[in-house]
Amino acid sequence: MKTLIVYAHPEPKSLNGSLKDLAVSTLTKAGHEVRVSDLYAMRWKATVDAADYGPSASSPLRVPKDSGRAFETGTLTPDVRAEQEKLLWADTIIFQFPLWWYTMPAILKGWVDRVFTYRFAYGVGEHSAVKYGERFGEGTLAGRRALLSVTVGGPESHYAERGINGPIDDLLFPIQHGILYYPGIEVLPPFVLYGTDRTTGDDWPDIAKAWEQRLLTLETTEPIPFRRQNFGDYEIPSLNLKEGLEPAGRSGFRLHVRA
């Protein structure tokens, strides 16, 4: 595999840092190529602005159109182009981050905002009476697989079906389905560590063993079976799931996962 690790934590000695380092060593030892985007070490700029698009920026700024024009003309700022090239190089992407305020750290969201430009990650393909662009199972990044490796401070029960924070699958759905699956990336079930506010050094051997096992089975792990947009499950152009396709009693985000 050619694996890109996008890592977002400010402390190299953190649990997230240790998980990132173990991923690099485990995959490299297994013969895979690994690249790392350490966003804090890179001092990644998290905010989109006109400087991202160079001479392709308009006034007033129109982020989708300007980012697409900059992508197509090769005038995106070099740091953004470099990350897009890493994504095109990789066949597997690991996102390593802590769950902060129910989502990814701002620096990682800023990486998405700037790197997933129009014409690169969205706004591609045919729009017609039978197809609504290449997305949700198709797109520029189709053929790649991604895994979220997430540390969560609270106990697992807080993130269960009846837990006060809501199911972890629901919290991660906007990332897994809305960001990654949208441009065609297949998403593997996440690796989630709970109760990490109370993790000690004594817990590390078991954590490391579980993480190594996930890493060494990435190629054979089945992705989350999200429904593909243009393959008969949705009405076009409303993009509503067709009646009768959902299992009895299923609702919400789970409608968009095949049984």
Describe this structure in words.
The chain has 259 residues and is an alpha/beta fold. It has one domain (2-223): Rossmann fold, CATH 3.40.50. It has seven helices and six strands; from the N terminus they run E-H-E-H-H-E-H-E-H-E-E-H-H. Strands 1, 2, 3, 4, 5 and 6 form a six-stranded parallel beta sheet that branches. The radius of gyration is 19 Å and the shape is globular. The mean pLDDT is 96.
Features:
alpha/beta, 7 helices, single chain, 31% helix
Rg estimate, integer Å: 19 Å
Helix and strand content put the structural class at alpha/beta
CATH class: Alpha Beta
Order of helices and strands: EHEHHEHEHEEHH
Please, how many domains?
Answer: 1
CATH homolog superfamily: Flavodoxin domain
Which topology does CATH recognise?
A: Rossmann fold
Characterize the main sheet. Answer: 6 strands, parallel
Shape, per Cα inertia axes: globular
The CATH architecture: 3-Layer(aba) Sandwich
Domain Flavodoxin-like fold: 1-213
Protein name: NAD(P)H dehydrogenase
GO molecular function, one term: NAD(P)H dehydrogenase (quinone) activity
Pfam family, one: Flavodoxin_2
